[in-house]
Every structure is written in C-alpha cells, then in structure tokens.
C-alpha cells in the first residue's frame, strides 16, 4: 500500500508521483491487488487504513496485462482462478470492483478483469488507447445514478454548471437572491428511483466569500473550468452568429449589386447599340475616304511617273543636242584644217 485511505488529495498526488518514479517490473499479481484492496477497505489485519462503516466500498482496478502470479507464467488458468477467488472474497465483504483493461495485452485476454467486475456487481471497461484513460473514467458512472438536478425554487433557476462525478458525488453553481433561498436537489437512480431533498441557503450580499473545504477545492476548480468553457462556447456561438449575419448581409449586398449591374448592363447595351450604329456609319465613311485617298494616290503616282518620263525624254533631247553640237564643232574644225591646207 503506497497511501492509506484518505480524503487528502494532496497525499494521493504524492503517492501517485512515487509510483511514477518506480519503473514497472516483475510480474502481474492481480489476485494480490484485489486482496490488498479488500484489506484496506475493511480494516482487516495488516491494513494501514481505518474502516469507515458508513462508506460505500468501491475499488477501481486498472491493469495493462494478464495475471501471471501467484502460480507463474506457465499456469494461466490457475492464475485466473486465483483472481476469481479474490473477487469472491471482496464481494462477500460488500466491495464492488470496477475494472479497466488498458491496452492490447490486457484486452487480448480480459477474462480476469471481466469476471472480477461481474462477481462484485461492478463495471468492466475496456480502454484500447491508454491515453484515453482519463476521459474514459469520467464517462463511467459507478454510483448507479443516472442524473442529478439542483434547482433554486426561490429564483426559479437550475444550477449551471452542474457536474456529477463517477462516484456519484456532485457539485454545481446556482444563482441566489439576497436573503433566504430554497434549493431543491433531486437524484435519479439507474433503476428509475428518485430522491428529493430541500436546503435553505441564506445569501447576504457583501458578507464576503465563504471558506471552501479543502476536499471541495478541486471540484470547485473544475466547475470554474466548466464556466470558462461555457463562456468561450457562448462567445464562439455569438461570433458564429455575427459571422453568419455578416455573410447574410454580404450575400444580400452581392445580390443587390448583381441586380444593379444587370440593369446597368441592359441600359448600356441599349446605348452601345446606338454607338455601334454610329460607329458603323463612321467606319463606312472612313472606308470611303480611304478609297478616295487611294484613287488620289494612284493619280498622283501616275502624274509623277509621267513627269519622270518627260524628264527622261528631255534629258535624251538634251543629250542629242549636245551630240549634234559636238558634231558641228568637229565639222567646223575639219573645215578649218582644209582651208589652211588650201592656203598652203
């Protein structure tokens, strides 16, 4: 026994840290674990705990393996029978065992964990993934209670948040009016049975916060966490509503703009029809102007060509005249030579 039975959760946390400091070793003696729990819960010889006769005796048994003791690894059937006998002894002492088989090894041969729960009217819970253990335990109810309701009859409001733990304990926050408030608490069992009680709570504004018993601090902190989650959820829902409203308004704006654009397009289409017609006329006129310009260009080209031809003819006439002048000069020179010859 690492830590005797206690209501001091800090001691439980220290004991768990000590367990974590020791690496797992040896074999699995499930029967001895069940017997040790029986000894502690009933205060039998060798117990480190003192029996509480008014308490409900419950064992949460976690294992990630199969029994390999007290007879050894080669005697699987005998080891399982030892677990059965230990569970029967626990049942005779009024102890209920809720067993958890964790991981593939324990789930491959779960007969010991299944039967110890059956023999003590407990619950067997398979946990395929060890990392899900905390969430799985919180979802299992060990108190045969299906529900709890806390209602302030004076203010006509229910407790919110309200949390019921696996062992049947519960806690919640309820709004109070100044003065005396009548609080109704109703519990429903799994078989449908109901029990109701009322409490008178006096609220004096400004009186200061009452001291919270140490054993309820963790539960209060969890309720505060639930409040924070609820506030975040409300904010997220409000944000989603705002986003949805923005999307709706944007969609409506898009539709309005789309319709306006369609109308402008129709108007513009009519305007463009006139513009296109005018453009067609202008284009025709431009084409006519281009045709006329081409005719003028051709006419000018012909005139230029004719001028070139005339220039060429004039140049030829000039050249012929120069040739004739040269011939005349030659004839004159020849005549002069003959005259000189006659004189001689």
TrEMBL record:
Residues 1-140 form the VWFA domain. Residues 290-344 are annotated as: Disordered. InterPro entries: Ig-like_fold (IPR013783), VWF_A (IPR002035), vWFA_dom_sf (IPR036465). Coiled coil: none annotated. Residues 335-344 have a biased composition (Basic and acidic residues). Gene3D superfamilies: Immunoglobulins (2.60.40.10), von Willebrand factor, type A domain (3.40.50.410). This is VWFA domain-containing protein. It comes from marine sediment metagenome.
